[in-house]
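Lab notebook, bench 4. Still working through the backlog of constructs that have no structural model yet. Next entry is a single chain of 410 residues. Request: give me the structure tokens for it.
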Amino acid sequence: MVKGLDMNDYYGLDSLEKQKQRVKKYLELENVSVLTGAGTSFHLGAPIIRTLRDDLKTQYVNEISQYFPSGSNPSFEDLINCLQADRYLREKKGDAIDDINTIISEMQNWLFEKVDTQKTNIQKDYQKDVNLEKNRYYYHEMLIKKLLQRPNNLKRANLFTTNYDMAFDYALDNLGVHYINGFTGVHNRCFRPEVYDYDLYYPGESVTGKVHRAERVLKYYKLHGSLSWLSTVPTVSNTYGIKEIPLNDEFITDDNKELVIYPCVSKKSFTLDLPYSELFRHFAQAINKPQSVLICLGYSFFDEHINDIINQALSLPSFTLIVANYTPPPGKNTEIDKLIELADKRIEVLNQEDANISSFAKFVSNVMPDLYEEEEKEAIALTMKKLYPNGESISFPPFDTPENTEVGGR
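Model written out:
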């Protein structure tokens, strides 16, 4: 006889399986949103722009000393924040701004080059990952596929990201998923926020009768802008002056073209203009609906605008917040620590010290459920529970062992 199987183990009552089952339950809610941050692109080699790289510190040492106290270690975002604020003040006074424009342009070109995940090198710890060897967007694609397994009668899942990079864009394209990202057009793609209120149905020829909602559709929001978004002079056809370009285009800044990125995490006033006002409005609408869940992956809660919206959503009794795959700075009381201290059962902060969920790849593989597989497991577990209501151990005969099988069979 083979070793008996304890029904408690069969039902998957270990900690990891419990977390997977909880996430599965929340994925079946009416309103599901995922917020991703820098931690979801780290394994691809994308730099964490909160840290000002040594080459930039050397290049802009004069500007750093002008804006920051001696001994400061500003981030990329801090520096460009000060440059933008200085440019604004100079414009108001009528002073020249050519020198600041040059620096901002240089920094954006640096960002355009270093954050393009098509060109970055896979992080050292992940270079032996066979999945990434075949497809560097393997885990991004896995997350998307699992999100799309939700029943089609539920509302579209929302994917929000604070990243400028194109990792999720590439993953969506690789999967052939239609994603609504706020832009319309083919050769001249312009920002139209009303697009987020559209959806896809088939058959497209029908004007009367029954239609069905298309599958494999996701709503995608880049809250801080993107490497593929350019600020241009507004025109009749492009009212907001925001254009989306293929990333293989050469990025060249001039007086009428600048990357639409949002590095100013500490100045709320800088987000009042389009497209950020619309993007944040949609984020607030998505998570403030009844029966909503927000799953935060690789987001360290450094953006006060996003945090304010999440805190507002916590006033709703049916809202659930799940936090995973973050890297807290050592020795600091972070916003995530504050969430834990609330001891609110609607807030689930997964144990980052658990090796099974300590990275984006591990979370997607081990915790994010495959809804199709989980349905099969639940059906089997339910059958076993009915057959063995007392939870006794099950022993299976060794059907295929040579010593218990007659020659020629029975």
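Notes after review: Residues 1-13, 263-272, 396-410 have pLDDT under 50 and may be disordered. The chain is about 35% helix and 15% strand. Flag for follow-up if needed.
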